[in-house]
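Sorry to interrupt, but I need a hand with the structure work. Could you write out one complete protein record for me, on any chain you like? Could you add the entry underneath, on a fresh line?
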Amino acid sequence: MAVLEVPFFPSAPSHIIQVALDGAQWRIRYDWSPPRSSWYLSLFTAAGETVYLRQRMTPTADLSRTLVFDGPPGLLGCSGPDPYGRFDLSVFYVPREDLVVAPRTDVRVTLQTELGVQVSNVQAL
């Protein structure tokens, strides 16, 4: 299974990156919230259209599938402890072709990546 590390710079409390995921360009904005001790991720198309705003980054959650299905076709996630500190997370992407699709949408699966990241509760598409 291919796991791609997505650029993330926790020393900058707010920053935007552009990255290719499954052949398409995306803009990701990261924002640190000191009162909540949490990172928030916003996702935009390469043209700047908003896909979603300020999704709390939670380890083991698929950041590209919360409330919307217009994001990258693979799995965008983060790893680290929860609760976490500002410098505790890393961001990764599993391309669609490397995801195992279960036959039902309510089946719980756990992905063990080559980076040692476990992602649970992935739903089949």
About this structure: The chain has a mean pLDDT of 82. The chain is about 0% helix and 40% strand.
